[in-house]
Amino acid sequence: KTGTGPLLWKIMAYINTVGVVGAGQMGSGIAQLAAAHGFDTWLVDTNPEALTRAEELITNNIHRLVSKGHLSQKDGDGALTQLKYSSNVQELSSADIIIEAIVESEGVKKSLVLELDKIAKCSTILASNTSSISITRLASATSRPIKVIGMHFMNPPPIMKLVEIVRGANTSDDRLHNQGLGGEVSELFGKTVICSKDFAGFVVNRILMPMLNEAFYALYTGVASKEDIDTGMKLGTNHPMGPLELADFIGLDICLSILNVLHSGLGDNKYAPCPLLVQYVDAGRHGRKRGVGVYDYRKSSQKGKT
Ligand code: NAI
Fold this sequence. Notes:
This protein has 306 residues and is of the alpha/beta class. Helices cover 46% and strands 13% of the residues.
């Protein structure tokens, strides 16, 4: 495992195997990070096509990191050997920490954590990469609420520097064993950690999503074109991406789910999703991953016109 000093030894004593469930945008990135940092890693998805796509993506990414000198050939080969793919969740019985990154639906996540709770060792930490769903409620579905944490990576996980660690109402405050360990694993992955209490949207999405929603309202009410909204925010506020472009990158379905959680969880109409965002999602325009969202990515490598 990479890293040095007491932190490395402390983590090594507790975490050898990392399990990741969900091989989409986020899960594949988290699995890549774990394997590249020397952990035995399982990536599990119920959809075999998602696993094939993830394997291809991760293998290419690791080769690129090696060719650019960001990872040694030995560590790159090690990462590819240490990462295993499966559609069988039972493979996670030996994992010391399991990070779920499946669809942003409370019902689906609850049934998964219930299943993981039965499969995993008693000492295993169950972490959720949820963007907004209550960790307290997910934890309550298990027999180990003290060992359930939020571990919210940003997209794409191998590149973005932040992880939000979220402590549910019943998460143990034992620094070493629970949320502290989640934070330390994240730090070992090279991330900066912030801690959030368990309120809808945590810190980052509570602030980010209303801005993205407002960009949809600006488009919906005809204040400006999508290009001008994005250029305005990029050059006017020094953001690397415009809000509509960023929403497409995150996934419009994910943005809508998060806004719905903010709206119902915080009980304020200012979080109500813009009807245009709802309509795009209803039309299957989920953003880059589907080839079309606010922009059309199918026509060329550049953003197209929709
Ligand atoms: P995605 O749609 O790209 O991937 C989800 C994957 O989960 C799919 O491959 C699907 O087959 C799999 N899946 C669904 N149900 C499953 C089950 N019961 N067991 C195993 N696999 C299952 O979604 P994405 O964007 O990777 O998001 C995943 C999670 O990460 C969500 O909770 C989301 O809110 C969160 N997140 C997303 C970010 C983003 O920018 N997209 C950023 C940070 C967090």
